[in-house]
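Database export, one record per block. Field names are fixed; values are copied verbatim from the stored entry.
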Amino acid sequence: MTENTALLVMDVQQGIMNRVTDPGYLPRVVRAIDAARRAGIPVLYVVVGFRPGHPETTRRNRTFGALPAGVFTPEDPGAAVHPDVEPRPGDILITKRRISAFAGSDLELVLRARGIDHLVLAGVATSGVVLSTLRQAADLDYRLTVLTDGCYDPDPEVHRVLTEKVFPRQADVVTVEKWASAPA
């Protein structure tokens, strides 16, 4: 049933997308978003973001502690969602402070308020936000679908292992085309 489903488009931001080398990636994500909208499935954009000065980070965090000042803050153009998949009125923007979409965000509150219990995941990187979000969402008892070609990782072998061997233990793993033909 689609009424309890949401599509999460994660970390598809200007400063992250400039590292994506697959020219077909964004068109596939657009296809997933269009299919979700046609089916009445809410689209939630999850972005990494910090306050000016990064008070949410620490040098102990290898991922975020070394970021240059100003990166992924409201003033940073790289923090914006890529214009090819730009949110529309009615879409929900979730700002996270760590790798998982749940970490430091109000995602779970938004999902509970809307009665959503099935998450469809797309994003960059497969080994980052997708993996971390999938693991946490599974522990929170969400039903999960991963759009294998709606995810991207700079290491194709890591992407393959995760989507073929790890994710199927906790999620349905399908292509954007298959999901878009009957989103649920």
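Remark 1: Residues 25-38 form the longest helix (14 residues).
Remark 2: The chain has six helices and six strands.
End of record.
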